[in-house]
Amino acid sequence: MRFVHRESILTGVAAAILAGLTGRVVGVGRWGILVGAVSGAVAGRRRVYDWRSRRGVVAFLADHTWALATTTTGVIAMAVNMTRDAGFEPSLSERQNRMVYRRGFVLRRGFAVTFGNVVNGAADENGELTERRRKLVTVHEDAHVWQARMFGPIYVVVYAAWFAGGALVGAVKWLASDRSVPLSRTVDAYAYYRNPFERHAYRLQGVSTPADVVER
């Protein structure tokens, strides 16, 4: 237990310094310190980062520098999860460079969602963490975690812009079609499933999507 507390303090301090310096560059130094301190302390207490691997060190550095914007969304998600029984899942989090919750705030029922390095909704609609759902986290959602680390603030902008543009394209396609396919499905295919970040994650997962069958 002492080791856990020590890791929490050391990780929190290191993350606060890195995030503070990063925030200072863009004029939000105090905000960066706060986000880094919370993110690092919680990650340290839950033994999230794999310090023995290069991947773990890179994850920590990216989370509190280049990917600070997406890490901020993760901190917000953690805060919301604290207000409900989100069900933190150690088996998918400890030394795996991410924080996973069985439940928590999600954008769509039955779908997991990733905010920075935080994954919500790992369990299925019945609350069960099946092997299929575990693969969803370790492959699909983990891909999003690393996409956020690689692209940083660009990830948020591109994802949101694609969703908005895809929704528009999907609506136009539906209006120009015989409308045999529901509008929601057509919009979903273009706005969500054809998003390059989602396509990459689904391909890694080996799962076909509605985007594969909707007429181009």
Q: How would you describe this structure to a colleague?
A:
There is one protein chain. Helix 1 packs antiparallel against helix 2, helix 5 (131-151) crosses helix 6 (153-176) and helix 5 packs antiparallel against helix 8. Helix content is 61%, strand content 4%. The protein has helices spanning 2-25, 29-45, 54-63, 68-82, 131-151, 153-176, 183-193, 196-205; strands spanning 99-100, 113-115, 118-120. The chain is globular. It is mainly alpha-helical.
List the helices and strands and how they pair.
Blueprint: H1 2-25, H2 29-45, H3 54-63, H4 68-82, E1 99-100, E2 113-115, E3 118-120, H5 131-151, H6 153-176, H7 183-193, H8 196-205
Parallel strand pairs: 1-3
Antiparallel strand pairs: 2-3
The residue fraction in helices comes out at 55-70%
Order of helices and strands: HHHHEEEHHHH
Biggest sheet features: 3 strands, mixed
- The geometry reads as globular
Overall pLDDT metric? 93
Discrete helix count: 8
Distance between the termini: 56 Å
Strand content: under 5%
Number of β-strand runs: 3
Query: Within the largest sheet, what's the order of strands?
Result: 1-3-2
Radius of gyration: 18 Å
**Domain tally:** 2
- Class by helix and strand content? mainly alpha
Instruction: Show unreliable segments.
Output: none
Concise description?
This protein is mainly alpha-helical and 216 residues long.
Keywords:
single chain; 61% helix; mainly alpha
